[in-house]
């Protein structure tokens, strides 16, 4: 049975379906970058609110700006913008919901004016983003916006046919300002530190290149709330679609699979109204930073800690790694001894319970989270997720063995061959530079730690870290991952 409006009543009663009148939904939110995470996270919170019978003004219009987004548009249009959410329980059970909060999708390259006018529509009060960590056109090390990027130059010269998210947002804000309309809130839902602040800096930087008066208006009127978002959402596979068809009779061309856990901590800073997401579990706060720090340094850095070592050792899924006591001890020691002492208090969160929840989430065999996904784009992830902990450990003179081992495992992973000799591709925008830096085993510390746009100068300049890194990579190459992990069991905090 093909998923669509006409078939909803025929689905199994255990499958949750929209109980509200989708045809009456107004689109108060435009979301740019509709992928698996948005459909498993922000759209789900919005769906829960709509299911309560209110908030009809907060439907979602999806927008795609990249060629890769055309496939998502095609699928959603064909299914009346419906899709199936499958929550994969660790006990083997699955919970199914059909999500209807998205009720339109525009593809920018086909009709840029239609997207600009949607963004300029007075009904639209929030523009949310999942454009990836690298989508903000900001240098990770310097924090500067790259105004020389060819697409940025194109957008400044061709404001009515933009290529970048900045070109679309600014042209829409220009039109809203000219028409006397209130601006929209720009809400980043990307997994990076201070995501709202990053979005604000990037958009103001672009606006300043176009018109300084406009930039001042945006700076005064538009808000950019920070947020912490969390839900493990692995890539949908053909197997997931086949299971849904065989077991539920639902033919969905692009369902979303995810873990049951979901969390969203959001700064209450909206210039033009917002949904009452607090009714469905969103935690609003004046300061997201403690929650963000906790999540990035425990969950995201924990993923990096297991990913490269696990891949070198021959594992391919997170639950395989966590099923090995050598790895599970290592991950828990990293959390307990390296990260937790540096976190401080997080209001409303029991850190010990949170860490145990992470271990259980990492171990969920149904999620089948691929290590290859976690290994991707290390040049974007390591500086954000792991370096802040390393810098603080250095400052306080704490043990460096585990964090140096993680960095060393990344360097060895970049050679493209695991310990059994299996070859693999490196998925990273800096892949060529990284591989070159990791190539010479005799000069690994000097060449790899000298990537200052990633590491700064602190790691290479630290005798303690350099020695710990050399010790870790020597032992990885001579003994292998398993023996090194076993030897770490006796390391004190």
State the main characteristics.
493 residues; alpha/beta; 5-stranded parallel β-sheet; 3-stranded mixed β-sheet; 48% helix
- As a percent range, the share of helical residues equals 40-55%
Strand residue content: 5-15%
**Count, helices:** 23
Uncertain ranges = none
The termini sit apart by 57 Å
**Strand neighbour order, sheet with most strands:** 5-2-1-6-7
Radius of gyration, whole Å: 23 Å
Describe the structure.
This protein is of the alpha/beta class. Helices cover 48% and strands 11% of the residues. The chain is built from 23 helices and 11 strands. It has a 5-stranded parallel β-sheet, with helices on both faces. The chain has a 3-stranded mixed β-sheet with strand order 4-3-9. Strands 8-10-11 form a 3-stranded mixed β-sheet, covered by helices on one side. Strand 3 (83-88) and strand 4 form a beta hairpin. Helix 4 crosses helix 6 (165-178), helix 6 (165-178) crosses helix 7 and helix 10 packs across helix 17 (401-413). The longest helix has 24 residues, at 289-312.
Task: Summarize it.
By secondary structure, the protein is α/β, with parallel strands linked by helices. Helix content is 48%, strand content 11%.
């Amino acid at each position: 049975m093909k998923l669509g409006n006409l078939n909803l009543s025929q689905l199994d009663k255990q499958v949750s379906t929209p109980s509200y009148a989708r045809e009456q939904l107004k689109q108060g939110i435009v979301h740019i970058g509709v992928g698996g995470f948005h459909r498993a996270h922000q759209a789900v919170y919005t769906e829960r609110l709509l299911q309560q019978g209110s908030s009809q003004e907060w439907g979602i219009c999806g927008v795609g700006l990249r060629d890769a987004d055309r496939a998502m548009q095609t699928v959603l249009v064909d299914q009346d913008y419906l899709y199936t959410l499958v929550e994969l329980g660790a006990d083997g059970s699955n919970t199914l919901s059909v999500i209807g909060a998205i009720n339109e999708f525009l593809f920018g390259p086909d009709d840029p004016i239609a997207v600009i006018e949607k963004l300029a529509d007075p009904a639209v009060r929030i523009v949310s983003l999942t454009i990836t960590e690298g989508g903000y056109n900001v240098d990770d090390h310097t924090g500067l916006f790259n105004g020389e990027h060819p697409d940025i130059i194109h957008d400044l010269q061709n404001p009515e046919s933009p290529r970048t998210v900045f070109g679309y947002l600014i042209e829409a804000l220009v039109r809203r300002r000219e028409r006397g309309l209130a601006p929209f809130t720009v809400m980043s839902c990307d997994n990076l530190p201070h995501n709202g602040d990053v979005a604000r800096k990037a958009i103001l930087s672009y606006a300043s290149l176009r018109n300084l008066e406009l930039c001042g208006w945006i700076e005064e009127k538009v808000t950019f709330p920070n947020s912490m978002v969390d839900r493990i959402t692995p890539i949908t596979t053909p197997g997931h679609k086949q299971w849904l068809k065989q077991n539920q009779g639902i033919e969905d061309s692009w369902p979303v699979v995810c873990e049951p856990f979901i969390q969203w901590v959001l700064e209450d800073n909206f210039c033009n109204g917002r949904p009452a997401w607090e009714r469905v579990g969103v935690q609003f706060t004046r300061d997201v930073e403690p929650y963000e720090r906790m999540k990035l340094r425990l969950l995201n850095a924990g993923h990096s800690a297991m990913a490269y070592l696990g891949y070198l050792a021959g594992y391919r899924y997170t639950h395989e790694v966590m099923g090995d006591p050598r790895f599970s001890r290592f991950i828990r020691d990293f959390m307990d001894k390296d990260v937790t002492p540096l976190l401080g208090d997080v209001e409303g969160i029991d850190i010990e319970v949170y860490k145990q929840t992470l271990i259980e989430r990492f171990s969920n065999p149904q999620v089948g989270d691929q290590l290859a996904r976690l290994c991707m784009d290390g040049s974007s992830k390591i500086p954000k997720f792991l370096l802040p902990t390393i810098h603080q450990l250095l400052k306080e003179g704490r043990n460096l063995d585990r964090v140096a081992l993680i960095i060393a495992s990344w360097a060895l992973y970049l050679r493209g061959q695991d310990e059994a000799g299996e070859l693999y591709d490196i998925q990273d925008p800096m892949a060529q530079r990284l591989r070159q830096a990791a190539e010479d085993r005799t000069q690994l510390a000097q060449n790899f730690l000298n990537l200052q746009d990633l590491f700064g100068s602190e790691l290479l300049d630290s005798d303690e870290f350099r020695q710990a890194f050399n010790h870790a990579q020597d032992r990885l190459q001579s003994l292998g991952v398993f023996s090194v992990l076993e030897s770490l069991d006796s390391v004190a905090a």
